[in-house]
Structure prediction request, 156 residues.
Amino acid sequence: MSGGIDYGRLMHRAMRGLIQEVLEGVRDNGLPGEHHFFITFDTSHPDVELADWLSDRYPGEMTVVMQHWYDNLDVTDEGFAVTLNFGDAPERLYVPYDAIKTFVDPSVEFGLRFESQEEEEDDDDTPPDGPGGGDEPTEEPAKHDAEVVRLDRFRK
Prediction:
């Protein structure tokens, strides 16, 4: 097998699928109970669609809230579109899943964060530290420690 298994990419794809499934449920049935979402996305992503005044105001990233008022939620395999109210001004926006940086439902303390890094060739098995230092998805707000297990210590 050439290359290797890109677990980071596979996890990101699975997490984006989870977001799609959650949004499809909201589209079909509305937001249940106290559930609501804070979705932070990269406004400079080439496929993001939003009003010029919003992209001017939020040139790097933007966080939107889906809670009390949202309309025309459309969910596809690539992203979602929704009309949100910005100070009594309804605006339609489209967010591809690849542009999402965080997806948080504070009502149940659930969150996903997508971290990216420039491709680096590194033979070290130690995971990178710090913000933006890895391509591994993390859950928020609860933090979990992880340990890299070297399988060669189990070989005979």
Summary: The chain is about 20% helix and 30% strand. Helices lie at 7-29, 52-57. The two ends are 23 Å apart (CA to CA). The longest helix spans residues 7-29.
